[in-house]
Amino acid sequence: MASIFSRIFKIGESEAHAVIDKLEDPIKMTEQGIRDLKEDLQKAMVSLAEVKGIAIRTRKASDDKRTQAADYERKAMQLLQQAQSGGLDKAQSDRLAMEALNKKEEAAKESNRLSQEAERHETMANQLQTNVNKIKSSITGYENDLTTLKARATTAQSTKKINEQIAQIDPSGTIAMLEKMKAKVERDESLAQAYGEIINADKSVDDEINSAIAKGQTTPSSSDQLAELKKKMGIV
Questions:
Q1: What are the structural domain ranges in the chain?
Q2: pLDDT tens per residue across span 152-189
Q3: What is this structure's pTM?
Q4: DSSP codes, the chain
Q5: In this predicted model, what pLDDT tens digit does every residue of 192-207 receive, in sequence order?
Q6: CA dist 108 to 76, 111, 228, Å?
Q7: Cα separation of 164 and 158, whole Å?
Q8: Which residues are within 8 A (CB) of 13 and not within 5 positions of it... i.e. 6 or more apart?
Q9: What share of the chain in percent tops pLDDT 70?
Q10: How far apart are the first and last CA of the chain?
Q11: Which fold has domain 9-169?
Q12: Phi-psi category of 234—alpha, beta or left, where left has phi over 0 and alpha has psi -120 to 50?
């Protein structure tokens, strides 16, 4: 029984995958992938800014502690100088100078600790910057690929339509149609010639006689017309 349900599940799974394959559009999938990458880029940029900010603050704190340590050392030297000049009790000068040196040591240690922490944050920031650059490069590459893919898809679709139209044309049917038109034209030309011959055959003999007489008559010349006119007028 379990094997039967397993086979049914496999069949349903394969059909579901087939439906999904039909629904998948490479262009839409690529566009979605680019949107996802841009979201990742935005998150990486926020993380990068935060880590860089921490690194900058930590580095500044380290520098401040280093300056503080140097200031405590300077104060210890001043105390010793005052005791040397008699302006301050030597025991008190030594005690306060020792306290200043302890403060200097604490500040120096804190400065070193903060410096190491700043270096770790700077290393992390550099790694994040590398990741950000990779994501930016990937987005640019995918956008270029998407532009090419869209152009190819448009060309393929147009070519497909043209090929479908060409495939639907029946060359034999077109040739047969042209042959029919040619036969009809030749038949009409033959009929026209036949009707012309019939018309010529129906001419009567009188028509032929009159036509021949008309062709044989000549038109009087201008000099003959002038002589005839003078004769009418009695002019010799």
A1: 9-169, 172-216
A2: 888 888 888 887 777 666 666 667 777 788 888 888 77
A3: 0.53
A4: -HHHHHHHHHHHHHHHHHHHHHH--HHHHHHHHHHHHHHHHHHHHHHHHHHHHHHHHHHHHHHHHHHHHHHHHHHHHHHHHHHHTTSS-HHHHHHHHHHHHHHHHHHHHHHHHHHHHHHHHHHHHHHHHHHHHHHHHHHHHHHHHHHHHHHHHHHHHHHHHHHHHHHH--HHHHHHHHHHHHHHHHHHHHHHHHHHHHHHHT--HHHHHHHHHHHH--PPPHHHHHHHHHHHHT--
A5: 777 666 666 655 556 6
A6: 15, 5, 153
A7: 10
A8: none
A9: 74
A10: 145
A11: Helix Hairpins (1.10.287)
A12: left
Residues in the chain: 236
Compute the average pLDDT of residues 84-97: 88
Q: What is the dihedral of CA 47, 50, 54, 56, to 10 degrees?
A: 110
| 210-236 pLDDT tens trace | 666 666 555 555 677 777 777 777 776
